[in-house]
DNA sequence: TTTAATGCAAACATTTTGCACCCTG
DNA sequence: CAGGGTGCAAAATGTTTGCATTAAA
């Protein structure tokens, strides 16, 4: 996470932008627990719980900035808003989403990365990123 | 497509709902060209071009209904609205999206289906469906 | 001290909903 | 002809933006 934060600082200074207390807070909210993948409102709520009042507008602005730097990725978990998580490029991972309780679990798989690389090659694409969302029912919900 | 339409009719009558001219039009708009994956507004525009005026509200209502029946799936192509396509369950397919021109191309791969089934088993999930979106730059855009 | 960052409220885009009227079964 | 379907306009959601003020470099 230290390396990513330095990369963020580098991006900002390289673009005439400034590092602020607020940007640091949002950055840390995303990077301190990668498996949380909060949405913008979650970040807002989590910060407020820590007595850090940051407006939703600024949270959106900062998240968009982090996405632009390539440090954060925006994911769609089947709801009507985006979620965010640190970009762990090179490590293929997807999300397993329970259609009943909404729980989101990550999975990792190297085979898929290989298959997708091959598909890109076949179709003549230079690949940038991919997302896999798998929907089903978790063990707990199957029983209930 | 005939089979799917019958399934739609069966769902409606089984739920005390009615088949209408409008529902048939929306259904056909989705099923007549599976690779179009239009959004709600596209469906509206395409119908209007055929002198069939159906309100956006009804299009949304019908698309949601078709998704509920399992006949249509809602996909996220990285824009800020949903797209729709016939559900071709059992046939794993993903979307290859060009980050420059926005072109969407489908791909099919059996290997991925196998890998995902295995992941579901490992984690104790009963899988329902999955979506794969791969982003990159198409051949044409790489040159330009 | 210059220029970017922030908060607020208004604007936007997409999708949903309440209600009066229309149509299917 | 009873109950669901539709269009319209208004509401609801999630996200972005203009502007006056604050703060980083």
Descriptive overview:
The structure is a homodimer of 144-residue chains. The model of chain A has no long low-confidence stretch (mean pLDDT 92). In chain A, the strands form two sheets. Chain A has a three-stranded mixed sheet with strand order 4-3-5. The first copy, chain A, has six helices and five strands; from the N terminus they run ααααββββαβα. In chain A, strand 3 (93-98) and strand 4 (104-108) form a beta hairpin. The longest helix of chain A is centred in the middle third of the chain and has 14 residues, at 56-69. The first copy, chain A, starts with a helix and ends with a helix. By secondary structure, chain A is of the alpha+beta class. Chains A and B meet through strand 3, helix 5 and strand 5 of A and strand 3, helix 5 and strand 5 of B. Strand 5 of chain A pairs antiparallel with strand 5 (126-137) of chain B, so a sheet runs across the interface. Chain A binds a DNA duplex (25 and 25 nucleotides) through helix 2 and helix 4.
The biggest beta sheet of chain A, please? 3 strands, mixed
Envelope shape of chain A? flat
The structure class of chain A reads: alpha+beta
Low-confidence stretches of chain A: none
Chain pair forming the biggest interface: A-B, 32 and 32 residues
Tell me roughly what share of residues is in helical segments of chain A: 40-55%
- Percent strand of chain A equals 15-25%
How do the strands line up in the largest sheet of chain A? Answer: 4-3-5
Oligomeric state of this protein: homodimer
What is the chain-wise order of helices and strands of chain A?
Answer: HHHHEEEEHEH
- The average pLDDT value of chain A, as a whole number, equals 92
- Computed Rg of chain A: 17 Å
Number of helical elements of chain A:
6
């Amino acid at each position: 996470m230290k390396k990513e934060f330095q990369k963020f600082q580098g991006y900002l200074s390289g673009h005439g932008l400034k590092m602020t207390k607020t940007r640091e807070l949002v950055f840390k909210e995303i990077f301190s627990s990668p498996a949380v993948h909060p949405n913008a409102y979650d970040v807002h709520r989590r910060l407020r719980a820590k007595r850090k009042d940051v407006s939703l507008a600024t949270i959106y602005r900062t998240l968009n900035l982090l996405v632009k730097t390539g440090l954060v990725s925006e994911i769609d978990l089947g709801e009507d808003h985006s979620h965010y998580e640190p970009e762990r490029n090179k490590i293929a991972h997807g999300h397993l989403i329970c259609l009943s309780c909404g729980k989101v679990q990550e999975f990792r798989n190297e085979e898929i990365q290989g298959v997708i690389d091959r598909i890109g090659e076949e179709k003549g694409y230079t690949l940038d990123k991919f997302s896999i969302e798998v929907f089903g029912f978790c063990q707990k919900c199957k029983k209930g």
